[in-house]
Design goal:
The complex is a heterotrimer of chains A (362), B (420) and C (370).
Chain A (H helix, E strand, L loop, with lengths): L3 E10 L2 E11 L4 E5 L6 H9 L6 E6 L2 E2 L10 E4 L11 H11 L4 H14 L15 H13 L5 E5 L7 H18 L2 E6 L2 H7 L2 E6 L2 E6 L1 H6 L4 H6 L6 E10 L2 E6 L2 E5 L10 E6 L4 E3 L11 E12 L2 E8 L2 E8 L9 E6 L5 E3 L9
Parallel strand pairs in A: 3-8, 3-9, 6-7, 7-8
Antiparallel strand pairs in A: 1-2, 1-4, 4-5, 9-10, 11-12, 11-14, 12-13, 14-20, 15-19, 16-17, 16-19, 17-18
Helix pairs in contact in A: 2-3, 2-4
Chain B lengths: L1 H24 L5 E7 L6 H14 L3 E7 L6 H12 L6 E5 L2 H8 L8 H7 L1 H4 L2 H7 E2 L2 E2 L2 E2 L3 E2 L2 E4 L1 H7 L7 H13 L3 E4 L3 H26 L7 H14 L11 H9 L3 E5 L3 H9 L9 E4 L6 E5 L1 E3 L8 H12 L1 H11 L15 H12 L1 E4 L9 H17 L2 H14 L5
Parallel strand pairs in B: 1-2, 1-3, 9-10, 12-14
Antiparallel strand pairs in B: 3-13, 4-5, 6-13, 7-12, 8-10, 8-11
Chain C lengths: L1 H34 L21 H8 L4 H33 L5 H9 L6 H11 L9 H4 L15 E6 L3 H20 L4 H22 L12 E5 L2 H26 L2 H9 L4 H12 L1 H17 L2 H7 L9 H11 L3 H32 L1
Helix pairs in contact in C: 1-15, 3-9, 3-12, 4-9, 5-9, 5-13, 7-8, 9-12, 10-11, 12-15, 14-15
Classes of the chains: A alpha+beta (362), B alpha/beta (420), C mainly alpha (370).
Chain lengths: 362, 420, 370
């Protein structure tokens, strides 16, 4: 129900600038996830949108209206905090009703709205309890309920799931997604967990050191990372980055790394004999039956360092020449350390980065 | 059998010691002497002069000077009472002579009769007869007065009076004749301070109104406070109050004296410690810098108060105390103490050359005037009455109802057994 | 095993239990016994003073006797004094704490400045304020710096009084207060539970009020003569000094509490649409209820025990600013009326208990429900 636009937004604390010229345009109904390592400025951006931090430079617009000077309560945004920030002396009902009371709504309307939200979040039995008497998941839902009752234009989430245990987190993640599908409210969600980012987002914004690295759909940022950082941050295990040299010959393009030369199709940005970083996703490494689908030149011998079986998949660390490479293989792969194994690299998904600028070569 | 003999021998030895001990120590006393007083501030040097004399005479006695600060002994008296109740009396303690001592300690049978000492030292003749009467009862004499202060004195600055063209009033009628004139000139006719000074003023006014015989009769129970004479005293007091400053209760007595010194007030009725304050602190010469007279209507009467020391029963070092008390009453002792304290000696034969001009005149009056006791300073009434009288005074200051004050005063007199 | 632990715990506590039993409760008991005797008067200080059982004579005399007027005014003073001190010190401390909580420049310096008076003894405070409030100095000459006429108010010696009432009508007033409290409580509860509010509070309140109004004249008079008591204006000076000394303390209490509240809660309330004032009103202050309660208890105790400050500021005999604690001391140690002094002590003790006991009960209940 609202577009949010960031134009050259920056934030300075004294002399240190923690957010540099962030530009972002968020569409109506979109679910945007800001992701990045801690200290990347993602929470600061969220708090600037909420109005809890002043904006040092640039502009934030909600529905086309500049909100830099607008008080938090007048921005029509609701926020869910990492530690929920429930008012401990108020019951669940009072917590959810507080913003409505501040807005001077009538008693009946408050009851109607809170009861409706409680119904959606299955909190009805707990309305008279104090937060201290609730479980972590229930508190989380109260925090969400507090945001929902106001039916704001924009939802802001600041790492809302990080205080939950792993199982509950997955479950709540799904519920969040479902709720967004149902309510279709513009949502900005901050997390450091790339899985949450990948699963929830319509678009992901990857941040590092206060700078936007890439904005794109989960598939885009996974398949076409704009730079080395994004390639390393998105995807688990991270992309293998190997120093390589490319050559463009008359009989086709080639890339050499770890002492092996592979025939590939190089992107236009590559010049002959360029030094590059070759990025290979662990799931682009195949074995056994999958090998048949690959050209023979893409097959290699890997010397197993260690192998971990994770459910139906296996993580395999092997050496290729001097370099250590991680592969994510289908099926349970029993492998003894030191054993040599036939593996294939799917170089169709090869990522290339300039070692100097760390930008993707396309 | 053997045990009994040993026990008997021990007992005999102990008795010998008990009998011989005191006799031996008569000449050269030893041990301790604890003197309990509230003389810590300006009066410290005067007390020290006495202690020095004592130590010179009895070098083997260790004098413990236990002072508890607080004017008029407000704190000291409370400490003393807890000590006495706890069965730990000091060797000798300071107390206002008269009913304050008698009503509290003599009636409680905690003091030794000192008649023997008075006779032995010849004090019956050395002290004025009226004084001995007031500090004693039928059953004995209970303390040795160290000093004498006069309560009924009116103070002024002669130069200011000349300026305003008035004289020190000899009666309250004189005062009422000039007071409105002074008041019109923007000067307070009579400076008054916080509440106890109102009591102090009251006793001078009441003495003027009643005369010394009736004043004494009040305290022997022969005259009631709510008798016509008693009520008249309150009426006069109320009239006098009209010429006092209305911020009185937030001033100390020194500040009231300052008003006179600074010319903001014409007169002040205060005890003669004011002379010490004006000559020592304010550096005014007695006679020319400041002047005095008996409070209006009390000429020829000397309303006294005295600090004294007594001998509590069960004092740990009785012999040392007796020697101390003998020193206090001696000419040597009182003439060492009083010039420093700013008071006069209780003895009629003191050496006037060591005293200042005010003290000389006071001494002369003390020798010839009719002596009456002060209420505000504990001579004529016990502590219970004094405490309740403060409430009556409060009531009067608020209501100015002489009849009611007289009735109230009579009630508290009955309650506290005045004259019994 | 738990049995042995219990024995050990009991043995560890035993010495302090015995000491407290003897030196606190034993002495309270002894004081109470003394207050029922006639210990006082001329032979009060005899080595073995005579103490006859006298029942409630001392209490009766204090509340209805002719000479108890001073005490009654002191008691009224103490009530006004407590109320004003609580409102003043908590209000001022709270305002300063809120100002400092918003992190002005030099916050640490201000905090120290405001807390500093706490470290002074009452005697020092009393002396300072005695000078400040002197009739021709200090506060009263402040306006002259602005070219105005000096103030004339006699801070410590004014004989004026406001909110006066006649002690004779004590019962009447008491009943009116009870009626008013019941009616107010009823009005507050009527929204949640109308029948109960009506039955428990409103109807009895109105009934008592009406009955008092109609038949109040039939009530026995507490005193045989008219005696007005009120809020003595002279106590304003004392109250000011105490507030000056203790607002820093309540400020520190509240500031510590405010600092302990997570910034997120403040942010959340801002997003929920609360203004700064509403944040403190609805979020911060309710969360600091325990702090408020302890401040109320501590301050009310201080005000009930107040002695040295009054002594230093106005001396022992200034009836305008009298206080039961001072009266107790003078009655006991100056008038030698030990029994009456003990009675005053017990009355003070009971007033203090009315503050403490509800607190103890509520905190005990809270603990047992947890």
């Amino acid at each position: 129900m609202a577009q949010v636009e960031l134009v050259d937004v920056c934030k300075r604390f004294g002399a240190t600038e923690v957010v540099h010229d962030a530009n972002l345009s968020i569409d109506d109904n979109e679910f945007i996830v800001l992701v990045g390592p801690s200290g990347c400025g993602k929470s600061t951006i969220l708090r600037m949108i909420a109005g809890l931090e002043t904006i040092s430079g640039g502009e934030i617009k909600i529905n086309g209206r500049r909100v830099n000077e607008v008080m938090p309560k007048d921005r029509d945004v609701a926020m869910v905090f990492q530690n929920y920030a429930l008012y401990p002396h108020m019951s669940v009902f009072e917590n959810m009703a507080f913003s409505l009371r501040m807005a001077r709504l009538g008693k009946d309307e408050i009851h109607r709205k809170v009861n409706k939200a409680a119904d959606i979040l299955e909190l009805t039995p707990y309305l008279q309890r104090k937060p201290a008497a609730l479980s972590g998941g229930q508190r989380q839902r109260v925090a969400m309920g507090r945001a929902i009752v106001r039916s704001p234009s924009v939802f802001l989430f600041d790492e809302p799931l990080s205080n939950l245990d792993a199982q509950l987190r997955t479950q709540m993640r799904m519920e969040l997604k479902k709720m967004h599908l149902k309510m279709k409210t513009t949502t900005i969600y901050v997390t450091h967990d790339q899985i949450e980012a990948m699963t929830l987002a319509d678009r992901i914004v990857i941040l590092k050191d206060g700078m936007v690295q890439q904005v794109g759909t989960p598939v885009e940022v996974y398949e076409k990372p704009d730079n080395r950082f994004v390639a390393g941050f998105i995807g688990n295990p991270p992309t293998n980055l190997l120093p390589a040299v490319v050559s463009r010959g008359s009989d086709g393009d080639e890339i050499s790394f770890c002492g092996v030369t592979f025939p590939v199709t190089l992107p236009a940005g590559c010049k002959d004999q360029d030094q590059v970083l070759a990025g290979i996703r662990p799931d682009s490494i195949k074995r056994d039956g999958a090998l048949a689908a690959l050209p023979e030149q893409w097959l290699i011998d890997g010397k197993v360092v260690v192998s971990e079986i994770v459910g139906s998949q296996s993580l395999l660390e092997f050496t290729m020449g001097e370099a250590s490479v991680i592969a994510e293989l289908e099926g349970r792969v029993p492998a003894a350390p030191g054993q040599t194994m036939k593996l294939g690299l799917n170089l169709e998904n090869l990522l290339l980065f300039d070692p100097e600028t760390e930008q993707a070569i396309r | 059998m053997k045990k009994t003999i040993v026990a008997m021998l021990v007992a005999m030895a102990a008795m010998l010691l008990l009998v011989v001990g005191p006799a031996q120590s008569k000449g050269h006393l030893s041990g301790q002497l604890e003197i309990f007083s509230w003389w810590a501030g300006d009066e410290g040097p005067a007390l020290q002069a006495l202690i020095d004399l004592y130590e010179k005479a009895h070098p083997n006695v260790e004098v413990v000077n236990a002072t508890v600060t607080g004017g008029s002994g407000v704190n000291a008296k409370a400490v003393l009472k807890t000590r006495m109740l706890g069965g730990e009396p000091p060797d000798s303690f300071q107390v206002h002579a008269g009913q304050e001592l008698i009503g509290t300690w003599v009636k409680a049978d905690r003091m030794e009769d000192l008649t023997f000492l008075f006779k032995e030292q010849g004090w019956m003749e050395a002290f004025p007869e009226g004084l001995v009467e007031l500090i004693g009862t039928d059953a004995g004499i209970w303390s040795v007065p160290v000093n004498i202060h006069r309560s009924n004195v009116i103070w002024y600055v002669p130069a200011n009076l000349d300026k305003w063209g008035i004289k020190a009033p000899e009666s309250w009628d004189d005062f009422f004749a000039v007071a409105p004139k002074i008041k019109e000139a923007g000067v307070v006719p009579l400076a008054l301070a916080q509440n106890w000074t109102a009591n102090h003023l009251w006793e001078s006014v009441a003495l003027a109104s009643l005369g010394p015989d009736n004043w004494d009769a009040l305290w022997t129970g022969k005259l009631a406070f709510d008798s016509p004479e008693g009520v008249k005293a309150w009426e006069l007091f109320g009239k006098v109050l009209e010429f006092t400053n209305d911020d009185a209760s937030s001033l100390s007595w020194q500040q009231a004296t300052d008003m006179v010194v600074d010319g903001r007030a014409a007169f002040n009725v205060m005890g003669d410690w004011a002379a010490g304050y004006m000559s020592t602190t304010k550096k005014l010469a007695p006679g020319s810098g400041f002047g005095w007279a008996a409070a209006p209507g009390t000429g020829g009467e000397f309303m006294f108060l005295a600090d004294s020391f007594g001998l509590p029963k069960g004092a740990p070092n009785r012999d040392n105390v007796v020697a101390w008390l003998a020193l206090l009453g001696s000419k040597e002792g009182s003439d060492a103490f009083n010039p420093l304290k700013g008071s006069i000696s209780a003895r009629t034969d003191s050496d006037l050359s060591v005293y200042n001009d005010y003290a000389k005149s006071a001494s002369a009056d003390f020798g010839k005037d009719r002596i009456v006791g002060s209420l505000a300073h504990g001579v004529t009434a016990n502590e219970g009455f004094m405490n309740d009288f403060a409430s009556v005074m409060e009531m009067f200051l608020k209501s100015r109802n002489a009849e009611a004050a007289g009735k109230a005063a009579q009630q508290i007199a009955m309650k506290n057994g005045i004259g019994k | 095993m738990p049995n042995r632990d219990r024995i050990k715990a009991f043995l560890t506590l035993l010495p302090s239990m015995i000491l407290i039993g003897v030196f606190v409760y034993g002495f309270i008991g002894n004081t109470f016994w003394l207050s029922l005797t006639d210990w006082g008067g001329v032979a009060a200080l005899a080595e073995n003073p005579v103490r006859n059982y006298a029942g409630l004579t001392n209490y009766k005399e204090l509340f209805t006797g002719f000479l108890g007027g001073g005490f009654r005014q002191d008691l009224v003073n103490a009530v006004y004094y407590s109320v004003m001190l609580l409102a003043g010190a908590i209000g001022t401390g709270l305002i300063i704490a809120i100002l400092l909580d918003n992190k002005p420049r030099g916050e640490a310096v201000f905090r120290t400045i405001f807390l500093y008076p706490m470290s002074l003894s009452f005697i020092v405070t009393g002396t300072i304020w005695r000078w400040l409030l002197a009739p021709q100095g200090g506060v009263n000459i402040l306006p002259t710096y602005a070219g105005l006429k000096p103030l004339e108010f006699k801070w410590l010696s004014s004989t004026g009084a406001i909110f006066e009432f006649n002690w004779q009508n004590l019962l009447l007033i008491g009943l009116y207060i009870v009626a008013a409290v019941l009616i107010v409580a009823g009005l507050m509860a009527i929204k949640q539970d109308p029948p109960r509010a009506l039955k428990r509070f409103l109807l009895p309140g109105i009934a008592i009020g009406l009955a008092t109004w109609l038949f109040g004249d039939l009530l026995p008079k507490a005193l045989f003569m008219e005696e007005t008591h009120g809020f003595n204006l002279a106590t304003i000076g004392i109250i000011m000094a105490t507030i000056w000394q203790y607002s820093g303390y309540t400020m520190a209490l509240y500031l510590a509490g405010f600092t302990g509240i997570s910034q997120d809660l403040r942010d959340a309330s801002m997003l929920d649409g609360a203004t700064t004032a509403q944040y403190y009103r609805y979020i911060a202050l309710p969360m600091l209820k325990p702090i408020t309660i302890s401040a109320v208890i501590i301050l009310s105790h201080i005000s009930l025990k107040m002695f040295d400050l009054i002594f230093a500021m106005t001396g022992p005999d200034n009836a305008e600013t009298g206080h039961p604690a001072l009266n107790m001391y003078l009655t006991t140690f100056r008038a030698n009326d030990f029994a009456k002094g003990a009675a005053i002590a017990i009355i003070l003790f009971l007033i203090a208990a009315t503050f403490i006991i509800p607190y103890l009960i509520s905190s005990y209940r809270q603990r047992s429900t947890r």
